[in-house]
Specification:
The chain has about 140 residues and is mainly α. The protein is built from 7 helices and no strands. The protein has one domain. Helix 1 runs antiparallel to helix 2 and helix 2 packs across helix 3. The protein is globular. The N and C termini lie far apart (about 60 Å).
């Protein structure tokens, strides 16, 4: 690996980490396009590399910052939610990657781009302020 590639990878990781910590996004939203455009990775190669970062507990330092803040603010992070979503994420990630490797690169790239655009538009124009604080107990409570 040459020195330029090394520093590009450091910059991509730093940018993804900063945005992840700043706005709570998954690094893939930054990492995948950056690997494609700066290092000419294929869509599948970039997605696989991004998912490879999840093998390590890279988000732990950012999580601890938010955890401590939320504890002090009286709005604790619910570990049940993390556990339940983690199960769904694990299963979804497995099947999603199986489907992705069978899809043509260009179609996969378009799916990725449309997803990012739709999420951005929703956040800009559709999201409303949360009126009721929802917790896992409220959602799963039987009445």
């Amino acid at each position: 690996m040459d020195i330029q590639t090394f520093f590009i990878l450091i910059a991509i990781g730093f940018g993804a980490g900063m945005l992840g910590g700043l706005v709570g996004i998954g690094g893939g939203i930054v990492i995948v396009p950056a690997l494609i455009y700066f290092l000419e990775y294929t869509q599948k190669q970039a997605q696989g590399t991004s998912l490879g970062l999840l093998l390590l507990p890279l988000g732990i330092l950012g999580f601890l910052q938010y955890y401590n803040y939320c504890q002090k603010s009286g709005i604790p992070i619910d570990f049940k939610v993390i556990g339940i979503m983690g199960i769904g994420f694990l299963i979804g990630n497995f099947f999603g990657s199986k489907v992705a490797i069978k899809i043509d690169q260009e179609i996969l790239k378009k799916i990725f781009a449309v997803f990012i655009i739709l999420i951005g538009l929703k956040m800009l124009f559709i999201d409303k302020k949360i009126k009721d604080k929802k917790t896992i107990e409220n959602i799963t409570e039987k009445k």
